[in-house]
TrEMBL record:
Protein name according to UniProt: SCP2 domain-containing protein
One Pfam family this sequence matches: SCP2
Domain SCP2: 21-75
GO cellular component: cytosol
Database matches in SUPFAM superfamilies: SCP-like
Taxonomy, superkingdom: Eukaryota
Biased composition (Basic and acidic residues): 86-95
Taxonomic lineage: Eukaryota, Fungi, Dikarya, Ascomycota, Pezizomycotina
Region of interest called Disordered, as start-end residue ranges on this chain: 63-95
Amino acid sequence: MGLANDKFPSSVAFDAIASALDASPEDRKDAIKQANAVFAFTLKNKAGETESWHVDLKESGKVATGTGAKPTGTFNTLPPWLDLGGDGRAERARA
């Protein structure tokens, strides 16, 4: 089961991040060494619901739901101009 939640279209980004980190143990170790942080993201959908994910680049190099134990940085939403469609590619939203 992936990390994406259909109620939060932008959440496909977390599956993409997890795949990238899982693809290469060497790259994961490098990302941990460079970032040394846990990033938490809380998204809000059009219905007003919120859901959280975190990217642990301090210890495990894994992506999971929830904010994590002690996030280094917290982002409360993705920028409104960023549209991550079902294919996981970032594109500028069209007005």
